[in-house]
Amino acid sequence: FKAVDSTNSWWHLFDCYLSNVLHNDSDYYHPMSSAVFSVIESGRASLDAEALTLSTSIESILKEQMGDLFHAHASLSESIRIAQGIIMASPDLDDAFQRRLRGTFGSMTRLRAKDILHNLKDHDLIDEALVAIYGPIRDVSAHGDKMSGGDLQDYINKLHSVLVLFYHLVFLVIEYEGPYSDYGAYGFPGKTFRGRLAIINNEQTEGS
Prior knowledge:
Layout: H1 9-21, H2 31-42, H3 47-66, H4 74-89, H5 95-108, H6 113-122, H7 128-142, H8 152-174, E1 178-181, E2 190-193, H9 198-207
Antiparallel strand pairs: 1-2
Helix pairs in contact: 2-3, 3-6, 3-7, 3-8, 4-5, 7-8
């Protein structure tokens, strides 16, 4: 019989994953475990349901597991402060409208999942091609649209690529580096993942 994994990489992956989720002491299920379980179960549903689950799970990991790594650029924060001052000083805007605008500006200081994903791409931690495939899939799913009557196999291939993106994000969070199966490529070839969020942590420390 041929060994499925002669490098023991699965045990290494499991060790990284378990070490990460054991730190959870507030939720019944670790948020990472919930996201992984949802993605696995979505494979039994329709393609549209799978696309929606993948999209929301990716956003969940980006915001919940990586949101503290990135902050709004200083120039953006300063622009928001200036705009808020102009609004507050305007005698033509009533109090209710001013409050709504302040809330809108406040949300602009919190990075979106998309911003975090592109930051990861800019740091060469995530494959640019996977990010490009994910964008349209996410937009269609988020707006409740369904797949058009296009090339079904092409759509399935793209979903597989988004699945790879999801697992790459998981790898980053649990600090796993090593072999994996690329479900987004024909024949599911074995590849090696490399990347550590510590790169960003070090930049944040040096910049402070």
